[in-house]
Amino acid sequence: MKKTITLDVNGVAETAEVEVGQTLLRFLRDGLDLTGTKEGCNEGECGSCMVLLDGRPVNSCLVLAVEADGRSVTTVEGLSREGVLHPLQKAFLSQAAVQCGFCTPGMVVSAAALLRENPEPTEDDVKKALAGNLCRCTGYKQIVDAVRDAAAAMRAGAVAGGEAGKPAEREEVPA
Amino acid sequence: MPVDLDYLSPSAVDDAVALRASRPSAAFLLGGTDLLPQMRSGRRSPETLIDLKRIPELHEIRENEDGGLSVGAAVPLADVETHPVVLSRFPLLAECSKTVGAWPLRQRATLAGNVCNASPAADTAVALLALDAVVNVASTTGRLAMAISELFLGPGQTALMAGDLVTEIVLPGAAAGFRGSYQRLSRRKGMDLATVGVLVGKRDGAPASWRVALAAVAPTPLRVAAAEELLAAKGASAAREAAELAVAACRPITDLRGSAEYRREMVGVLVRRGVESLG
């Protein structure tokens, strides 16, 4: 059965007809072509499908698209602005916290949710916030370091008068 | 997922109960963290989902006159475990909640859902048993209150009737003030079910009151009244005897998380440690 939903995705109002059984994850990927959000386990275990729903980190494979009607969704695509990477994305690059990259969007989104609540997380805070995100390549150390680097960069940016979370300047993305 | 699956999102409890009664193969949907994987694997196949999250009443956390707290069915665990009244008066519930899944999962998962799913390993159920929680239920015949001790019948089985809607979980003020620990063994620290869970709580007084409750070592979450009474009479020096009573009360199985023998052994170790740490 189909239902019509209207929701905000990365600041854009979207209206669509979706099957009731379709997950928010499949709707984002297949309906809106936002393929940064990944499907890993499809049962809420791996965290690669993490998005923000009304600002809260959620496994989008465990949310039906119809449940997001009237809500606001932020995907990894919504963290960068006009091609300028979010401080977390920059830190993941500079720390080489990416190997195959499949878990990375979910890691970045979970970390973004953490830094909204806690601008100065301890190593333990980061580990707890990322406990629902599995990485099978890197061993996590670089990921935790990257999140703490990004937090420091964002605090420095806020002190310098910049808007927290807004990158100070454009940075070239290595190929 | 079936292609003809229907979705309804009523805005009042009575409407939800009436809809459920008119559709025998419907299921109530809260956080979906259990239901959606169960549907995907074919273990459950409702034809209609009745989403309860658009009902304002179910999102309330209310402080009661007796010093207790009522937690609406749609309140996510993340909000329960960070609530100031839970942290100050019912800290053992926060301890147990923090071990469920991971932080993002707890943005969706609810106390009511954790209870209704009736897993023997339900971490929050252990705290609710220890705190004498009451489950408020709405049905076509009216509203009723059920003691949590009467709720769990077996793995996935509760005393709730088909169509019963859990509206809120009530923590009685009389159960406030217990402090202690929830020791939980699992294969990894996040995103895994408990292999063994042991809650030990104490409230100072003359005599002190004790709570001992266990997860994942019996067909239902379990409270060990015999151990609690022994500790009330003899105090923490009876840690070893209390541990033996807990071991005698549990009925673990062997599965991929651990053997029955290991679980029984760990119940003894963890109850003893939990009691000694409060001595």
Write a concise keyword list for the protein shown above.
heterodimer, A: 175 residues, alpha+beta, Ubiquitin-like (UB roll), DNA polymerase, domain 1, 5 helices, disordered C terminus, B: 279 residues, Uridine Diphospho-n-acetylenolpyruvylglucosamine Reductase, domain 2, Uridine Diphospho-n-acetylenolpyruvylglucosamine Reductase, domain 3, Enolase-like, domain 1, 3 domains, five-stranded antiparallel β-sheet, four-stranded antiparallel β-sheet, 10 helices
Descriptive account of the structure:
The complex is a heterodimer of chains A (175) and B (279). Chain A is of the alpha+beta class. Chain A has two domains: 2-78, Roll (Ubiquitin-like (UB roll)), CATH 3.10.20; 87-159, DNA polymerase, domain 1, CATH 1.10.150.120. In chain A, 32% of the residues lie in helices and 15% in strands. Chain A has helices spanning 24-31, 87-94, 104-117, 123-129, 141-159; strands spanning 2-9, 12-19, 50-53, 56-59, 72-74. In chain A, a hairpin with a 2-residue loop joins β3 and β4. In chain A, α2 (87-94) crosses α5. The longest helix of chain A is centred in the C-terminal third of the chain and has 19 residues, at 141-159. Mean pLDDT of chain A is 92; it is low at 164-175. Chain B has 279 residues and is of the alpha+beta class. Chain B folds into three domains: 6-51, Uridine Diphospho-n-acetylenolpyruvylglucosamine Reductase, domain 2 (2-Layer Sandwich), CATH 3.30.43; 56-174, Uridine Diphospho-n-acetylenolpyruvylglucosamine Reductase, domain 3 (2-Layer Sandwich); 178-277, CO dehydrogenase flavoprotein, C-terminal domain (Enolase-like, domain 1, 2-Layer Sandwich), CATH 3.30.390. Chain B has ten helices and 14 strands. Chain B has helices spanning 13-22, 35-40, 77-80, 84-89, 91-97, 111-117, 123-130, 225-234, 239-249, 260-276; strands spanning 6-8, 26-29, 48-51, 61-63, 69-72, 134-139, 142-147, 152-154, 157-158, 165-171, 179-185, 196-203, 209-215, 222-223. In chain B, strands 4-5-10-6-7 form a five-stranded antiparallel sheet. In chain B, strands 11-12-13-14 form a four-stranded antiparallel sheet, sandwiched between helices. In chain B, a hairpin with a 5-residue loop joins β12 and β13 (209-215). The chains are: A alpha+beta (175), B alpha+beta (279). At the A-B interface, β4 of A face α2 of B.
